Amino acid sequence: MSSLALINEFLGQPPNASSHGYQIDHILEFCHWFMGALFLGWSAFFIFVLIRFRKSRRPVADHAGVTSGISTHLEFSVVLIEAVLLLGFAIPLWAKRVNQFPPGKEAFVVHVAGQQFSWNFHLPGPDGQFGRRGVGFVSNSNPMGLDPNDPAGKDDIVGELHVPVNRPVIIELSSKDVIHDFFLPDMRIAADAIPGSLIPMWFTPIKTGTYEVICGQLCGLGHSGMKGTLVVDTPADYQAWLKERAELAGSQGAPPTGAPKAENKSPQPAASPSPSG
To answer: Which of 12, 27, 77, 120 has the fewest CB atoms within 10 Å, counting from its CB?
Structure first.
């Protein structure tokens, strides 16, 4: 990590683990140093003004004000730099993330559904095909609504999120209730999960490991506990994990659901007695 990027680490940003994340980091570190320079500059100017125009030196106010054009040039320079950051870097990078998706044959596709207050992950099994889903099949034991009569879904994996390293990952987001935000800090990527919509996002992990998934959108009282886990495996480890899940599915005769997740449930009010006639 360069000395300039140390400011990102100082502010608590985790190390980057995606191919596009370095571009995000460069923009952030420049913005942080730029804001730091502005803070020092304006603070120095403020102190100068307090001393230069103190009452003991100038007891009668000068209503003419500043006649020099230096302040105008400084303000124009700040606006110009911000415009360059926005139009030259931020918008092109954002456009690339939302418009230039990797080809479907190269990408690894995952379905993610958010709900208060947990994430549900749906991966294709060894056959590489997703089973049909329907709202009518959604239940506590079938959070993704998989059709139990669809053969393509017999080996699907629900409940764990594993992806292979150095391969583009496309996540198709949805929500069961309110707007959530699927945020992977280490991958420098986030997108809103909106009820009734399928929102795609993508990234390419470049480091193996276990990373935290959080919700970046205030979604209710249990928002802070809405977390998940992303595991990035080597290709060999991913195939071994996939084989293990497939064997477990075959022994159970149903799509594996992975490790059970703790659910944060708000206490339900007791039913009020019906009024007597």
So the answer is: 12
| Residue located via tokens 């959530």 | 180
Contact 210, 185 (CB under 8 A): no
User: 6: left (phi > 0), else alpha (psi -120 to 50), else beta?
Assistant: alpha
Q: Amino acid identity, residue 145?
A: G
User: Token digits for 35?
Assistant: 């804001």
User: Is the distance from CB of 238 to CB of 164 less than 8 angstroms?
Assistant: yes
Strands of the 162-164 sheet, one edge to the other? 162-164, 227-233, 209-215, 180-184, 189-193
Instruction: Report how far residue 38's alpha carbon sits from residue 44's, in angstroms, rounded to the nearest whole number.
Output: 10
DSSP assigned state of 102: P
pLDDT digits (tens, 9 = 90+) for 159-208: 889 999 999 999 999 999 999 999 999 999 999 999 989 999 999 999 99
**pLDDT beneath 70, residues of the chain:** 1-5, 65-66, 249-277
Calculate the alpha carbon distances from 24 to 102, 191, 211 in Å: 19, 15, 18
Sign of the alpha-carbon dihedral angle for 6, 12, 17, 22: negative
Query: Which single residue is written with the structure tokens 């958010």?
Result: 114
The DSSP call for residue 269 is P
The rounded distance, in Å, linking the Cα atoms of 10 and 149 is: 53
Dig out the tokens for 239 from the structure: 């195939």
Q: How far is residue 26 from each of residues 19, 90, 164, 206, 246, measured CA to CA in Å?
A: 13, 11, 26, 17, 42
Interatomic CA distance for residues 109 and 19, integer angstroms? 17
- The 10s digit of each residue's pLDDT in 60-69 is 777 776 677 7
Convert 122-155 to b/e letters by CB count within 10 Å (16 or more is b).
bbbbeeeebbebeeebbeeebbbbbeeebebbbb
